[in-house]
Amino acid sequence: MAALKGRHALVTGGGRGIGRAIAAALANAGASVTIAGRKQQPLADAVGQGHAASYFIADVTDARALGDGIERAAAERGPFDILIANAGGAESAPFAKTTPEHFQRMFDLNLMSVVHGAHAVLGEMSKRGYGRIVAIASTAGLNGYAYVSAYCAAKHAVVGLVRALAIETAASGVTVNAVCPGYTDTDLMRASIDGIAKKTGRTREQTLAEFTKGSPVGRLIRPEEVAAAVLYLCSPDAAAVTGTTLTIAGGEI
Ligand code: NDP
Questions:
Q1: Which long-range contacts (CB under 8 A, 24 or more apart) does 239-243 make?
Q2: Which of 38, 95, 171, 240 lies 20 to 30 Å from 103 when distance is taken between CA atoms?
């Protein structure tokens, strides 16, 4: 229960979805958890419900805003031992309709957010000889999917970043890993289902069945199942696990 007692963890996008489940799991394991995002209400609600101890507002695509938030939180509650770079999102479009701006947005949100977070915490982690960095990538970081080429490219880049950074930090006590969820039951997924149902005239149930039919378990992944994988990677027992991807996708990959 108290495996992470005394550890300060940051979860970006910790106000809802997968991030909130991760924050709750880390807090249950004894960590002091700070969450970050753009909207105040979900962050304040998550803190109010005991899923985290504090929050700050920052857009993860803005290196300076994220860095300032991290610096303030570290000054108040101690340097970060754990970074969960979870905030991200997908925009879908056939490749022919994508623009350089679409690709840039997906790279800023899904890749550069991890880079900015790691830049802000890594120096202190290396100095203290301990750290856990976990990026929430996706099965889209390992497989290709139609109509999300920019998201897939960005998530593949996250997996590449994790593998490279893990080698650089391996001797310093800092581990760097990625968790790759399959379709997970969150707002992001619900918005995709609603959008596709609207475009195609199918019902929500039919659309959901399209998503789950490619998964051997035949259902969406639960955010808590992703959080359990993150918790393992943050545990003392995972000190020798670095540069890896842990796929939580019901056998899809
Ligand atoms: P949600 O849309 O439910 O939540 C996204 C979270 O990220 C919110 O807390 C949001 O907070 C935050 N966020 C989004 N953009 C920014 C930004 N620019 N700056 C700061 N925070 C931001 O998504 P999920 O929980 O489903 O996804 C979490 C991660 O898991 C993402 O990286 C996603 O790509 C990945 N993933 C999700 C899957 C799924 O099927 N759901 C499958 C595989 C991977 P706010 O709006 O307040 O900024």
A1: 239/173, 239/175, 241/175, 241/177, 242/166, 242/169, 242/170, 242/175, 242/176, 242/177, 243/162, 243/163, 243/166, 243/167, 243/170, 243/176, 243/177
A2: 38
